[in-house]
From TrEMBL:
Top-rank taxon, per record: Eukaryota
Keyword Nucleus appears in the UniProt entry: yes
Keyword annotations: Nucleus, Transport
Residue ranges of every copy of the Nucleoporin Nup133/Nup155-like C-terminal domain listed in the record: 576-1224
Listed name of the protein: Nuclear pore complex protein Nup155
Pfam families assigned to the protein according to its UniProt record, in alphabetical order: Nucleoporin_C, Nucleoporin_N
InterPro entries per the UniProt record, alphabetical: Nucleoporin_Nup133/Nup155_C, Nucleoporin_Nup133/Nup155_N, Nucleoporin_Nup155, Nucleoporin_Nup155_C_1, Nucleoporin_Nup155_C_2, Nucleoporin_Nup155_C_3
Annotated compartments: Nucleus
Family membership noted in the UniProt record: Belongs to the non-repetitive/WGA-negative nucleoporin family.
Start and end residues of each Nucleoporin Nup133/Nup155-like N-terminal domain: 57-441
Length: 1263
């Protein structure tokens, strides 16, 4: 309810200029059109419309052992859809997970040698729901189909595979030898034979009137083929084995490839449930067609065809199939090696895989297999097909290759042709390929453009390197800026540095708006391809198409329909790349829903029709993630919004660029203002989109169809005819109506009470019935059903009574599962964890309440542990009493003790495996209360350290807790921490620790620190110097094009460890590596202030040279460097002389005409004590009296204005300071303002600043 009211207030209170929103929406349309204008695959092929990271995994030892037992036949392959590899040894098959080398399953129920293996999805409704796949095994005699099921575990839904030993059906081969097996998305099962026939195994749920449950159908023969004798058929037909079947599930087309290179096309019908043979093309015919296109090559280069890949509709609406030949892959484009700039080409290709404009080949070079990855992802807007390629040598002969496919979220029907990867990369994971070799499995990750960009930033440490320039040159600045935003908007701590690097690159290459010629032009027109093209191959266009794409950017608006044209008038401005990149990113976030209807009508039972959301909750989360990231990026980088000082310009009406084109006297300042106004509109539009998508997600979580059904008919009709674009722009009144409807549904909904009561009664009846059941499997199933019912109404049950019922049935893990679920339901935002991990939590009453509620729930778990613990102690006591009475102890009694102990340990392990730190705390407290110290230390969980440290802080005098803490550190090899605690225990005052214990503590501490402390110090010093050497090596590699003898230096730095003085004299100083010089001074502890200030001055000077854009943009880039230095030298006052740095920054700010608040805000964000900052600014004002630079008229009031901005920062954040510190800072600020006013009263032209300072003075007096 709070969330709903917040959204309602936000939307109602936001007064938005419609003209501003329409301008932002128009720019989004331009961005969408620019992305959608990427040439289609059919265009790049020049025909009429008729890798990155490698991860090796060894084979499991059990699999390697089985190779020695091969007697007749052995095969290996991959099932990437279930993340498994397989091996057949004669009549046995073994399946295992190739990434973990675990979960080895096997089947040995066949007497004949296995000749072919396949995995297909079953038809829905034919088998039990737990059968997820069908494993098809073919021998010379039979085809055996096994059911495949999985058990869900901590790693996912496919944690452990199980092969059902009884075949679901067995079919005789009738003498045919199966060569390949394939299935469709609808569950149809096809196989090809060495005799050249295509078969289908038709199966159904039950036996029909006129047929069996399962039968084999020969699809390669006609209806009347039975009239011709079989010997005559064999004599007249030529044997041509089918070697591959490829299925296009989007168009329902099946392709077959034969050993002699013939390709047959079969239609599976509109719904994929029929079959008809369309055509068959021989290899000779295919070669003839290829020779007509490329007449300069010998025909042998086009044969044989070794594989085919169906091109689905989402990739191309016109191209249906890609074939790969042994010497090359060809459609109308040639492979690497036939371009003028490439001398290496793939030869002897024997395996290939193609999908989504990415081709992976396995070729053999000098008897070694080499993997080729060829991709056009880096050139999405090139008018010709350009591809980057890479080669990787494999560790052995390749046996199979397969891609791990992922569903592409949000992009609607598979019949829609998807935009290029650069447009989808913020949503879609990188392509992942698995290669099975004789030595093991190698997994290759094909990097997306954003992954490549991240790698370049990491290697260059954010510097302006040749690789970074090349990336923006190839991808173009606008696309590069859009890619930068993906990384710049990352907010996690581990990605903070990458985000800063990406932000710096965004502004470095983003440029500034310019004046354009008075001709119609598209701000998003695609640029020509770059001449910089390492490892690039391209297809030359035929002669008749050479002039199809002229050198200048085409007028894309000519290709649009009249109502889609994004340009009404020519613009006198050309927006910057960073402006266009921001709109491109927003367009990509909204592309899947921009023109999608908000509501879709769905017929449920051929009678009733409901209005359902066209977006799911998951879709909303995806979109909201991107929009929120963009909003936060815009908020952090304030220089992207309109400047508050430009009030005269801002007060003017927000005009569209098209309305200003008639002005003949436009200036560069007008262009900058126009861009800032456009960015201001972008910021408002993004905020509104975030609010509306957030509201839509809430509606989807609360029975969307019921809420829409409660609206009047005219409003339902309005929603049905509203796309999301219109909802963002004009239908905010409809959002308010939806919020009101949702609130009313909360107030009037009583139906859920009956549902809860019904489920409670059902769960109670199941638990009572369970007591009478003797069959263990049936009993376990009933307990599971009762548990699921209780979980569905977790917050509405009497937890204590339900748990008692489960304990009485010895369903101990069910109690832990139910309590865990209740804890997550009552505290989904983990407020209790935040309270527990926050040391300063005294005032957090809400967190304390949630912590107490969770601990109250977990008392039921400790009740289970108490029950088992008492039962175990009772068994032990009975055994001891019998021994004392000299009675014989039966093996059954010992077994009972072991059984209870095992049950107790299983419950403890089950609790520890759950990701619930508060439940762990409850367990630890229980174990401490039972003196189970060894078992407690043995858990080794990170949450145990948090618990022990927190308990030690709460009870500093408790020796038992401190004993547990040092034992924990010792068992986890943290000997230093253990030694410190032992030393504190030995040195503690008081009579609670006897002398013998103190001696024992000291002896244990010495054992923990075995190494000599001086040697330890030497190692630490050497490590620090080695880190500096590594920093120098990275700098030399990044700047090798600018450094003479760079290769010699790289070799030397990789050959030995140098002394700190050698690093400075031989590398840092001669190569002018300024930041490395500073790192050396810091490492050596050198205190030459003049030298340090000189280095810092040069660093700032070099950084200014690299900057571009407006004064604020340039200043922002300089301050980014200062932030980097501040993090690196936060503990070193020598290498980060704050007074000097502040003085230099203010001089730079004055020279660049930057806003006065930029430097103070940055310094405050570095967590520098405010008193120190205000003191430094006071000193600077005093010093500036004798500095000629500050006496110049335009700089005279700069320091005073900056000081005022600094004090304003304190006023805006004064609530975060405690009272004593706040009073002290307030007094200091008041003195500073008084001194400034005293100085300004006597100076002319200071009235505006005096008034500002008086306002600050008034605010300070109210704190």
């Amino acid at each position: 309810m709070n969330t709903i009211s917040t959204v309602n207030q936000t939307i109602d209170s936001t007064q938005i200029s419609v003209q501003k929103m329409e301008t932002a929406a128009k720019n989004v349309d331009k961005a969408l059109h620019a992305d959608g204008n990427a040439p289609r695959l059919i265009d790049l092929m020049n025909i009429n419309p008729q890798t990155g990271v490698s991860i090796p995994y060894q084979l499991p030892p059990e699999i390697v052992d089985h190779f020695s037992h091969v007697q007749c036949h052995c095969m290996m392959g991959l099932f990437t859809e279930i993340s498994r590899a397989w091996l057949t040894v004669d009549s046995d098959i073994y399946i295992w997970t190739y990434e973990e080398n675990t979960d080895l399953a096997y089947f040995d129920g066949i007497n004949e040698t296995i000749l072919c293996v396949g995995l297909v999805k079953p038809k829905p409704g034919v088998f039990h729901a737990f059968i997820k796949h069908l494993l098809v095994l073919s021998t010379a005699v039979d085809i055996i189909v096994l059911g495949v099921t999985f058990t869900e575990g901590p790693t996912g839904a496919m944690d452990e595979i199980q092969l059902i030993p009884d075949p679901v059906f067995t079919i005789p081969t009738d003498g045919s030898i199966v060569s390949t097996i394939a299935g469709t998305a609808e569950g149809r099962l096809f196989f090809g034979t060495k005799e050249g026939c295509l078969y289908e195994i038709s199966y159904q749920a039950e036996t029909g009137w006129f047929g069996k449950r399962c039968k084999k159908i020969n699809l390669s023969t006609s209806t009347f083929s039975f009239l011709i004798p079989s010997f005559l058929n064999a004599a007249l037909s030529e044997e041509d084995p089918i070697v591959q079947i490829s299925v296009d599930n989007s168009r329902h087309i099946l392709y077959t490839l034969t050993e002699k290179g013939s390709i047959e096309v079969c239609d599976l019908g509109e719904k994929g449930n029929s079959f008809s043979r369309i055509t068959k093309v021989s290899q000779a015919s295919l070669v003839h067609q290829a020779m007509n296109t490329v007449k300069t090559l010998d025909s042998q280069n086009f044969r044989p065809i070794i594989s085919i890949s169906a091109v689905e509709a989402y990739e191309s609406g016109n191209i249906n199939l890609v074939g790969c030949r042994k010497q090359e892959y060809a459609h109308v484009r040639l492979p690497p090696g036939y371009s003028a700039n490439v001398t290496v080409r793939p030869r002897a290709v024997h395996i290939s895989n193609y999908r989504d404009r990415n081709l992976v080949l396995i070729s053999t070079v000098n008897e070694k297999d080499v993997l080729w990855c060829i991709s056009s992802d880096l050139f999405p807007f090139s008018p010709t097909l350009m591809e980057a390629y890479n080669t990787i040598s494999l560790d052995g002969p390749a046996l199979a290759i397969a891609e791990v496919k992922h569903e592409i979220p949000l992009f609607g029907s598979t019949m829609e042709e998807l935009p290029p990867m650069v447009v989808r990369q913020h949503l879609e994971p990188p392509h992942k390929y698995v290669v099975l070799t004789s030595q093991g499995v190698q997994i290759f990750i094909k990097l997306r453009p954003v992954d490549l960009f991240k790698q370049i930033l990491q290697e260059s440490h954010g510097h302006d390197t040749d690789a970074l320039k090349a990336f923006f040159m190839i991808l173009k600045e606008e696309q590069g800026c859009a890619t930068s935003i993906i990384l710049a908007s990352l907010e996690s701590a581990e990605n903070m540095e990458i985000a800063e690097y990406a932000t710096r690159a965004f502004f470095m290459f983003g440029g500034e708006p310019k004046l354009a010629k008075m001709t119609p032009a598209n701000m998003f027109s695609p640029s020509g391809t770059s001449m910089f093209s390492p490892n690039i191959v391209s297809t030359p266009a035929p002669r008749f198409q050479q002039n199809m794409f002229p050198p200048q950017s085409p007028n894309i608006s000519q290709t649009l329909l009249p109502d889609q044209a994004p340009f009404d008038f020519p613009s006198p401005f050309t927006f910057s790349a960073k402006h266009n990149g921001l709109y491109l990113f927003l367009g990509r976030c909204l592309r899947p829903i921009w023109n999608r209807w908000c509501v879709e009508r769905i017929c449920i039972d051929a009678k009733s029709i409901t209005n359902n959301s066209s977006l799911t909750c998951e879709d909303c989360v995806y979109i909201l993630h991107g929009l929120t990231a963009l909003h936060n990026f815009l908020t952090r980088n304030t220089q992207l919004s309109a400047i508050t000082t430009s009030t005269n310009h801002q007060s003017s009406t927000f005009n569209n660029t098209s309305m200003n084109m008639t002005r003949a006297n436009v200036t560069l300042q007008d262009a900058q203002l126009e861009e800032r106004q456009s960015l201001d509109a972008l910021k408002v539009f993004v905020r509104i989109c975030c609010q509306i998508i957030g509201l839509w997600r809430i509606l989807c979580e609360h029975q969307f169809h019921s809420l829409i059904g409660a609206l009047p008919e005219n409003q339902q009709q309005m929603l049905q005819n509203t796309p999301f674009k219109e909802l963002f722009l004009y239908r905010q009144d409809m959002c308010s109506i939806l919020i009101t409807t949702l609130v009313n549904s909360y107030l009037s909904d009583n139906a859920s009470v009956d549902s809860i009561s019904s489920k409670l009664r059902e769960a109670s009846e199941i638990l009572k019935l369970t007591r009478t059941v003797q069959n263990l499997d049936q009993k376990e199933e009933m307990i599971y059903s009762a548990l699921q019912l209780c979980k569905s109404i977790a917050l509405n049950i009497n937890l204590a009574e339900v748990c008692k019922e489960f304990i009485s049935l010895k369903a101990y893990k069910a109690v832990a599962e139910l309590c865990f679920h209740c804890g997550q339901k009552i505290d989904p935002d983990k407020i209790a964890e935040n309270f527990y991990n926050n040391e300063d939590n005294i005032a957090d009453q809400e967190g304390f309440n949630y912590f107490q509620k969770r601990m109250e729930i977990y008392k039921q778990v400790t009740n289970v542990l108490d029950c088992l613990y008492m039962e175990q102690n009772q068994e032990i006591s009975n055994i001891r009493s019998r021994i004392f009475l000299n009675e014989t102890v039966s093996s059954g009694a010992t077994a009972d003790e072991n059984r209870v102990g095992v049950a107790l340990q299983e419950v403890i392990n089950d609790i520890l495996e759950r990701p619930d730190e508060i439940m762990h705390v409850a367990l630890y407290e229980w174990m401490v209360s039972k003196n189970m110290t060894n078992d407690l230390i043995g858990t080794g969980k990170p949450s145990l350290e948090t618990y022990l440290k927190r308990t030690a802080a709460q009870h500093p005098d408790s020796k038992n807790v401190m004993d547990l803490l040092w034992k924990y550190y010792e068992s986890n090899n943290n000997h230093t921490a253990a030694a410190k605690i032992l030393n504190n225990l030995a040195s503690r005052r008081g009579n609670t620790t006897p002398l013998k214990d103190r001696l024992s503590y000291l002896a244990r501490a010495i054992m923990c620190m075995r190494s000599d402390k001086f040697f330890l110090r030497d190692l630490e010093d050497k490590l620090e110097v080695a880190k500096v050497q590594d920093q120098i090596l990275d700098a030399v590699i990044n700047l090798q094009s600018q450094i003479p003898n760079a290769q010699e230096a790289i070799v030397a730095l990789n050959s030995e460890l140098f002394e700190i003085s050698q690093l400075y004299e031989n590398f840092a100083e001669p190569f002018k590596l300024l930041e490395c010089q500073l790192a050396i001074i810091d490492c050596a502890g050198y205190t030459d202030s003049a030298l340090i200030e000189s280095i810092l001055e040069q660093i700032l000077s070099e950084e200014i040279k690299k900057t571009s854009g407006s004064g604020n943009d340039r200043m922002g880039q300089v301050l980014t460097k200062i932030k980097h230095l501040a993090r690196q030298y936060s503990q070193s006052s020598q290498c980060f002389p704050l007074s000097y740095i502040v003085y230099e920054l203010e001089i730079i700010s004055a020279k660049l005409k930057g806003d006065k608040y930029l430097v103070p805000m940055t310094l405050v964000s570095l967590n520098i004590p405010f008193e120190k900052l205000i003191t430094i600014y006071n000193n600077l004002i005093t010093i500036s009296v004798n500095d000629h630079f500050w006496q110049v008229e335009e700089n005279e009031f700069h320091l005073s204005e900056a000081t005022a901005a600094l004090i304003n920062c304190f006023i805006n954040t004064h609530e975060s300071y405690h009272n004593v510190e706040k009073r002290k800072i307030t007094s200091l600020c008041q003195d500073t303002v008084a001194a400034l006013l005293s100085n300004l009263y006597s100076k002319p032209n200071s009235d505006s600043l005096v008034n500002q300072l008086r306002g600050i003075q008034a605010k300070l007096s109210r704190i």
